[in-house]
Amino acid sequence: MSSRLPRITDATRRARLGRSHLLSPAHRARTAEEVAHALVALHATDPATVYLSVCARLAEPSAQAVDRALYEDVTLVKLLSMRRTLFAVTTELAPYVDASTARAVAERERRILLRHLTEHGEGGVHWDEERLAETERAALAALAARGEATTAELNKDVPALRESIVTSPDKPYAARQSVGSRVLRQLASDGHIRRARPRGSWTSSMFAWAAVAPLPEVPVRRAKAEVARRWLASFGPGTEADLKWWTGWSLGDVRTALADAGAVPVELTAGEGRALPEDLDRRDDSAPWAALLPGLDPTTMGWRRRDWYLDPALVPALFDRAGNAGPTVWWNGRVVGGWALRADGEVAWRLLADAGREAEAAVAAEAERLAGWLDGQRVTPRYRTPLERALAE
User: Fold this and answer.
1) What whole-number distance in Å separates Cα of residue 75 and Cα of residue 241?
2) pLDDT tens digit string along 128-170?
């Protein structure tokens, strides 16, 4: 690598997280929308993650603030997008995420759904594209009549939704799935419906569906450039491999998007990276900060290569076997431990690295802050990790 490239050290990258990811108390946000904007996209596969990720970064954490953004003002929307993962993004960014990633995901999901219906449908009923389209039209009409409805409620209105398919029928892990759940997920992927307020607490996975207006169309190349630019602004500097992993794009698409975004090469410890020109001389304050971040938090899951903020020796305790991050404890840009919520509402945490007394005091204060706004709400991560299980007992 040429020594003439600007060099950005791991220490500098860690120092930037406090400001760019709103983790330093001096840089916390006022609204859920500000948090989503700063992080580009919030992991939403586990419903609780959006709330926990946002509130970790709010000056005044409140589940009601996230409720308002998701279900009242609808200024945050959920899209099945990067890496076929459900994310919550701002309505301003949603058209770009849709065009750059979600449309391709939806097309792939439709092919898979149609194959499963034609090959594994039960009851001797023949499925093809025409019957699937008819069923989708009927589901949308039923939803329009109800306003909002759960999958179970729509199943009552549309007989075809009550049918089932068996995936991997000849395997030990064969599973029966509702046609309704798959069809409604497809309609959401295609941008026709959205997840409305859960039936239950904000940790519930039982939600209603609601119709949604189509997103504005954006040219794909322009959309990818904007997503790449936003990722660099929030997560940069990073490598091509980081952005490829985060988006799920091809390497060719990544390189084109980075060039279109105006990224410039920089030298990182991990090799050559990319950054926005305006970030080359950026300075961030070094005020110490601690954070308790939830499983699948965007900061933990933002890069493919993580050893500049995560000791590989900690991975077995803090990640599950599929690579999903559990709850983590951070100190000044490094992962230093994990946490869990016990049945009695206590936030239990453990440092896995010697971070010093100042860190212990700061982490204890963050644990108290988290317990305060949770106010007894029980939260169990969808993807449980060894340390989280041990601490939750």
Assistant:
1) 31
2) 999 999 999 999 999 999 999 999 999 999 999 999 988 777 7
What CATH number matches the domain at 103-211, 1.10.10, 1.10.20, 1.10.3470, 3.40.190? 1.10.10
Q: How far apart are CA 183 and CA 139, in angstroms?
A: 9
Cα torsion angle, 361, 365, 370, 372, sign = positive
Is there a contact between 255 and 292 (Cβ–Cβ < 8 Å)? no
What are the extents of the domains in the chain?
103-211
Cβ proximity of 219 and 257 under 8 Å: no
pLDDT tens, residue by residue, 318-329: 999 999 999 999
**What is the rounded distance in angstroms from the CA atom of residue 123 to the CA atom of residue 202?**
37
**pTM for this prediction:** 0.94
Q: Token digits for 79?
A: 């899209």
Sign of the torsion angle spanned by Cα atoms 320, 322, 326, 330: positive
| DSSP E strand stretches across the chain | 42-43, 76-80, 86-90, 148-149, 164-167, 175-178, 193-198, 207-211, 264-268, 271-275, 290-293, 328-331, 334-341, 347-351
